[in-house]
Specification:
Blueprint: H1 26-46, E1 57-58, H2 59-64, H3 67-70, E2 77-81, H4 86-90, E3 100-106, H5 111-117, E4 129-138, E5 152-162, H6 164-184, E6 190-193, H7 203-211, E7 215-219, E8 225-233, H8 235-239, E9 251-258, H9 259-270, H10 273-284
Antiparallel strand pairs: 1-3, 2-3, 4-5, 5-9, 6-7, 7-8, 8-9
Helix pairs in contact: 1-6, 1-9, 1-10, 9-10
GO molecular function, one term: aminoacyl-tRNA ligase activity
Domain Aminoacyl-transfer RNA synthetases class-II family profile: 42-285
Keywords: Aminoacyl-tRNA synthetase, ATP-binding, Ligase, Nucleotide-binding, Protein biosynthesis
Length: 285
């Protein structure tokens, strides 16, 4: 006999806490974890060990990486209550009316930032370095839309740091993996150049990006970008003084997967979460 309250959800399922905030039920959760398990296949194929990035990113370092110039609207700042607010909190005052102090940190908007910042001033060696991680990411979007656009979501990334040639090979292998996995899962994806500014909105870098794009996205039939391949050139290597032995500042690149968006694409392709989970289980067999 099952223990009461442990196996059945209440009528109406789980309530979402607010715009851009979703609580995944057991089927959606199994889909997300199962998909992440399949996506680690790229990390295994490329020999990228699993790590865990930091939960907060220093704002001053992000500024050195042109983060705020490129994405002034996306950042979600971490604040803490000022000591003078403690008495009010203890007395039951509304938290939204009490003062906050900045911590000098932001919540991550992409998994790779924390990994790259953790390597500042390091030499990754002549053969370069690969790392893989899944992180919870946060973005202050203009609007939210189901699993397609969330305030907080999970991002799997496989990161490469090394030579120019190695970064190209990394992205070629990542792009092939995305299409191969999509075929196994019954997903039809189209590849398109992304229009993110990434480095800056004007000047020589923007002109260079127009001629030689640094980001391509893989889109589901409804236009949802569920994966991307991102070539950073030697931008982070120079800004963070990350070197690859005699090769000098590293060239870096990452393959990124939005896990909730993969769940969305699976349901879009297969009709229901339950059917999508069956297809996922067959793909893992």
């Amino acid at each position: 006999m099952s223990t009461p309250g442990t196996t059945a959800l209440p009528d109406g399922g789980l309530k979402n806490p607010g715009p851009g905030l979703i609580t995944l039920d057991p089927v959606h959760t199994a889909l997300l974890h199962g998909l992440d398990g399949l996506l680690t296949g790229l990390a295994a194929r490329l020999g990228a060990p699993e790590v865990m990035g930091p939960p907060l990113l220093a704002a001053d370092t992000l500024a050195r990486l042109d983060y705020f110039r490129n994405f002034p609207h996306l950042g979600v700042s971490a604040g803490r209550f000022a000591p003078e607010a403690f008495d009010g909190l203890a007395a039951g005052e509304a938290p939204g009316e009490l003062s906050l102090r900045p911590t000098g940190h932001l919540l991550p908007s992409a998994t790779c930032y924390g990994l790259l910042m953790s390597l500042e001033g390091r030499d990754v060696g002549e053969d370069g370095l690969r790392l893989s991680a899944t992180g919870r990411c946060f973005r202050n979007e203009t609007h939210y839309d189901g699993l397609r656009r969330l305030w907080g979501f999970h991002m799997r990334e496989v990161l490469y740091l090394g030579t120019r040639e190695g970064s190209v090979e990394h992205l070629d292998g990542g792009a092939s993996f995305v299409q191969e996995l999509a075929g196994r899962l019954g997903l039809t994806l189209t590849r398109a150049v992304a229009d993110d500014p990434f480095y800056d909105k004007g000047g020589s870098r923007a002109r260079l990006m127009a001629l030689d794009p640094v980001k391509h996205e893989f889109n589901a039939p409804d236009g949802t970008a569920i994966a991307s391949v991102n070539r950073h050139r030697n931008f982070f290597g120079e800004r963070l003084d990350i070197r690859a032995g005699s090769h000098g500042p590293v060239y870096s690149a990452c393959v990124a997967f939005g896990l909730e968006r993969w769940v969305h694409a699976m349901i879009l392709a297969h009709g229901t979460p339950e059917r999508a989970l069956d297809v996922l289980r067959d793909a893992r067999a």
